[in-house]
Amino acid sequence: MLTRLPLARLPLVRSPLAGSRMTRAAGVAAAGVVLLGASPATAASATAASATAASATADDVRGGQQPVLDTLELPRAWRATRGGGVTVAVLDSGVDPLHRDLAGSVTVGKDFTKGANPPGVRPLRLHGTYMASLIAGHGHGPGGSRGVIGVAPEAEILSVRVILEDEERGFRVFDTDPRFEDVMARGIRYAVDRGADVINLSLSKDLPSREERAAIRYAIDRGVVLVAAAGNDGARRPGRAAPYSYPAAFPGVVAVGATDGRLRRATFSNGNSSVVVAAPGVDILGAGPGDQYWIGRGTSQATALVSGVAALIKAECPRLSPPLVARALTASATDRPPGGYDTGTGFGVVNARRALAEARRLARHTETATGGQAQDPASPVGGGAAVPVRVVARDRDRARVYGVVAAVAAGGALASMATMYLLVRRVRRAHNPQDA
After folding, report:
1. Read out DSSP for 35-99?
2. What pTM does this model have?
């Protein structure tokens, strides 16, 4: 079952936070966050140190985001596009559509967790709002200069609720009731059918299901880019490959690892061969419900940043297929590991400006095959009836025997032809002595 790690209300500090860990067999790839600004109700229940942090304002946020904006080269990427016309589905715990940095950009979609919480209990929407702000936050105030600016600030967010916060009253029901087992698969299909161009999956589980695999294929067949978190179990397995997390480990999904301030694999980030690219995942500023602001770490945050870059690519090159979007992300990555790939950061750290340039290059040289045997890119792969494949086994010993027999037969045929030729000449000489 899908869950997420609690968003811990900790003192506002700039030092690294405690490493996050997964507490259940299925857990969202998130991590602890720090509350920057709280509503009165939240501040009253927070620690004294957190209450002190509540005086922080949205003006503090943009400056804190600058290292990430520079790493992704977003100011230069925004000269080409800011993600307009693209919809990013955030499959998560729900998004607050009234947050001032997201207002007007959020469509609240279906809640697939309905029935888990008792009647009348409102969702907290902590994790989902945080992720949505990193993808499409547009800030507020004069020129949108305050608050959170996302990677694709003009993109639209489709909020699809498929998980509960650990703090919600219905979490235990959601975590154990079989009716919620395939909520992610249903959420993916729902998002695709409602026009999503990119699906952000800042969540994970240990074991995949047939329904999820089919939903992933359904999305990719229809040109939708899926971006998922590699997971936060790396610190528990130092020096060894971390377990695979799903949906990140499904073929065709862009699996994202997290980097620290030096752009190296963050200690908590899962390292395994599913990782495709990485993005900053430590001390990441984002928005929380009720006009709050948070700072935290995790592959969730890194995933949201990569989803934003994918949205920029789809805005610039809307017909680019998911594999080619992934190619644009990987071929343009910076801080590439020795040899070009490793299991910690994949092919390197995403770079929005370079990714857009690579996407334009790929789009310019992309052609669609024609003819009766060509696959229609608008149709599901393998839609026709299966054709039996004839398997031929090669017996080397028998082939040698047949080869010898054939050689002997050929020699006999030549000898016969030579004998016939000599006999014909002898007969001709007997009848025509002058030819002798």
Report:
1. EEE--HHHHHHS-HHHHHHTT--THHHHHHHHHHHHHTTHHHHTTT---TT-EEEEEES---TTS
2. 0.77
